[in-house]
Input
Amino acid sequence: MIIQDLMTVESQQEIAKNIFEMKLTGKLVGEITSPGQFVHIRVSDSFEPLLRRPISIAEINPEKDEMTIIYRAEGRGTSLLSEKREGDIVNVLGPLGNGFPVEETAAGQTAVLIGGGIGVPPLYELSKQLTANGVNCIHILGFESDQVVFYEEEFAALGETYIATVDGSNGTQGFVTNVMSEISDDFETFYSCGPMPMLDAVQKAYVHKKGYLSFEQRMGCGIGACFACVCHTNENATDQPYVKVCSDGPVFPAGVVQI
Amino acid sequence: MNRLAMTLPGLELKNPIMPASGCFGFGKEYGNLYDLSKLGAIMIKATTEEMRYGNPTPRVAETSSGMLNAIGLQNPGLQGVLSNELPWLEKFDVPIIANVAGSETADYVEVAKQISNAPNVHALELNISCPNVKCGGILFGTDPEIAKELTAAVKAVSSVPVYVKLSPNVTDIKAMALAVEAGGADGITMINTLVGMRLDEKTGKPVIANKTGGLSGPAIKPVAIRMVYEVSQVVNIPIIGMGGVTCVQDVVDFLSAGASAVAVGTANFVDPFICPTIIEQLPAKLDELGIDHISELVGRSHRV
Output
């Protein structure tokens, strides 16, 4: 169920250049049903900025009612969010959307998780749940440069992890697709989250594989009412002519959304 | 006595608060969050004769204390609304105000004729003011004579009262209001969004794919209040006021300016529970103001 929760900031730290990791506690965590769902955060009590900010959930700890979000402080909204300190209260709406289907990969099978930049965070909880189920996870994570790489060790603790950076300052020089072309395609499922061109490249490279993509779009309400975040669908992929990223997604089977 | 009840043409409102068209879909998303029967009414998303996908994205852009949108009247079309959306809303004890849009008189008339016969539609809101569709809407909303003729044409086929939604993008809002009143409108809803634009900081190009969008949110409230104040003094039909309502004081302001009921738009995106929250807070506000019934507030800004 979607609730509006006044969550408490447990910690906030900059884990890479302008990349912040924030831990929040509240009863909203108990409502989260799958990795890849997101929350819609009011960063200010005033109307400046007016709208909430959609942010993906990187990790959940239901025993402690705690969740971790990782975001880039880029514009006014996320910069204000990065100023929150331990003990501050944040108005959070969520959990929103439909996450990655963990059950699509069985124990003993292999899943490839491909993330780009600020699309990497939701893959962390996904990988935790998949590996807990006995799935072998391979992670391919792309970033601009070493300055903005985060969670490299955390992912490595869960499975094989490859880093790609555009400038070559960490791992393979280039994009996630450069790594993809070098690894075996002996896997069952792929899961991906990142910028549109990356999702497009991943989808094309693995056209014969079962995969799930998480999309990003400018959002208004976050619950499916305002029609700001609609995308066209591919013919024959679904009976809907369009989807709303916030409430029908953000995760869709590969091939459904027109990129 | 229900201190919040208001009676308007076609509408027995248990309270004067309703979500504004375009900010509430067809109610389903908010129906998952609270009991829609709490609302005074619901203004559903604009319905056109044929299904519309709407404009390309980006469709929204944030601005200072507001937002621009250019959704482009995306909706499932008249038959989809009649067969799916309206029946779903029947389980709630709430009158529906159906927003009717089109690009020429004939399709406005067709939608009005059919949708006004749905059992839970108690009034129509004639959308002559959407700034985000290429043809039709905006012209109907800016030329008094054309607005009057369209109002009369829709009025002739509608089986429920017709409210006309006015655009603020005009020089003389009173002339528009008087024209639709002369055309037979039973009420006025105002204001729709103000046409605006935001440029990308890096590229200098418009952020919204449609280039222009409709400005809504707290930023436009003073414009809306001024227009309700002006129009309520020249027409004899009731006004449902809207534009930047975010709290119970804003509701008091719109009623004081001359509105008989108030719609909440963009604030639903910021706080999806805003309508029931305002409704719960209204009685205490009346106590604070020392009045028995909410109708006593209507038009007090210009009452002698």
Remarks:
- Chain A has a mean pLDDT of 96.
